[in-house]
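Sequence in, structure out. Go.
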Amino acid sequence: MDLTRYAIGGVAPRQAVRPVTRDEAGEALRAASRDGLGVVPWGGSVALPFEAAPERYDLALDLSALDSLVEYEPADLTLTAECGVTLAALRSALAAHGQELPLEAAFADRATLGGVLAANASGPRRRRFGAPRDRILGARYLLGDGSGARTGGKVVKNVAGYGVHRLLCGSRGGLAVITQASLKLMPAPARRVALIWKVESTVLSDRARWQALHRLELAALSVASTACAKEAGLGGDAPFVVIAGLEDDEARVAELEGRLTAGLGAPDGRREGHEALALWQALADLEERPGARVTLATPDTTPAALAAMPGLAPDLALVFHAPAGRLHLWPGPGELQALGPGIASGAFVAIDARPAGAMSGGPAAPLAVGAMRRALRSAIDPAARFALGESWVHRAL
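Output:
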């Protein structure tokens, strides 16, 4: 196998294996445990190449062949699938029944279900529809010694016991290998609309303009700077672009569109149906653009929150998903220092960085979080078989 395709931070593993069954994956882990190898579970090559290389990277465990749709119950709005299936494949299967799995991740044609769960990845609609840990009902997974385990169930009423499957969401492949997951679905909305405004920074800081949006239950409300707006196909002739997403029945979408137009003025652009969905995907794709990335969170869930960061400039690559209070930045040399006052004021708190340490000199992770993660790793992966476990314990900030 071509080992360079599994490189993390430019470092390739010594070996790679691609099991085609869960049993084969367990066998590979048992062999790795016997030989003392550091293992990294591998999905669709969406995020891992940009991470810092782990100290021990002996074996890439490619799970892309485990891609079956195990069980789908449209009447129960649930499905069970293997971790190697892509989000695009799941969306295609569900669309035939007028249903969807509202998980969002960059490059859905490559992003695998296991990778999305492990990263707890989400996009502009996170606040409205939830992150992966809000959708997962149960999972089967493999521990570092190759033994299998299962928690949760396949339907909502069946879920009982410790929610280890939710704990694995966001563990970034540092605790176990998710091989199969059961998830909650939802009916596809009758109508989707995206409204687009091109604005100046003074418009963003006008809090009164945005305050009424809290009560509208928008599917999305995102802000992109010039650099990111161009990449998302929204043009780059304004300092910032604001995108509002509407998903509901016909009457409700028409009502919301009227209220937004009355409050914010006529939009500069409008997309509907599949074009709106493609725009959500383009915004999610931005989160895995190349380069060092810093993610911050704020309790202020309107575009006006950006006014607390006086160092923001249109040429700084950023995307802010306001309802979730989540800001992604790709700072260039010196740009992060200019944002220091906004972070120091407490208006924004750094919650993640890629690679870990990208925000050098930033605040350290709270001691309780680090201690909790060390305890979890010691309990779930006592032999420290998963090479990314250490970076998960000390993740970013």
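Check: The chain is about 30% helix and 25% strand. Residues 191-354 form a domain with the Vanillyl-alcohol Oxidase; Chain A, domain 3 fold (CATH 3.40.462).
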